[in-house]
Design brief:
two-stranded antiparallel ribbon, alpha+beta, five-stranded antiparallel β-sheet, 153 residues, 2 helices
Length: 153
């Protein structure tokens, strides 16, 4: 008697959850394909820019060894890091682009040079120099350190 009720609900809920999962998968796939296509149809631009910020996004995942969810055989843990750099162009507009770890490590806030990108796709940065910080002497004689993107400069 109880299982008849359970079977009726399960036969109704399972197809809905399955279709929801399939719909989310296709939504993500189509969204990524649209971004890829938009980037491919965007012009390649090279503009003067300054590195104004850097950040990372670290994600973790773990899975049980040997399919044993109790953890009796231990867990495999993996970490994935995404690297992002924010550039400011001469007009004052800023854009955050995803870069690989090697590029991220070679760039420092305040670096200036030529940024090459296509849509939201980072293609390269040719460093011309760094103005991460400079000093000036106000009238009272004290040194004041300011960043290159400081609006009071």
């Amino acid at each position: 008697m109880f299982f008849g009720w359970f079977d009726a609900i399960f036969s109704f809920i399972f197809p809905i959850l399955f279709l929801l999962f399939i719909g989310m998968f296709f939504f993500a796939l189509i969204s990524n394909l649209r971004t890829w296509n938009k980037n491919n149809h965007s012009p390649r631009l090279t503009v003067p820019a300054t590195v104004v910020a850097k950040r990372t996004d670290v994600s973790h995942s773990s899975s049980a060894n040997a399919g044993d969810m109790s953890g009796a055989h231990g867990y495999d843990t993996s970490t994935f890091t995404s690297y992002y750099v924010t550039f400011q162009v001469e007009s004052g507009d800023r854009m955050e682009l995803r870069v690989d770890g090697r590029e991220y490590g070679q760039l420092a806030e305040g670096d200036f040079g030529e940024l090459t990108f296509q849509g939201t796709r980072y293609l390269g940065f040719e460093r011309r120099g760094s103005k991460a910080a400079y000093y000036d002497r106000p009238e009272n004689g004290e040194e004041r350190q300011r960043a290159s993107w400081d609006p009071e400069r």
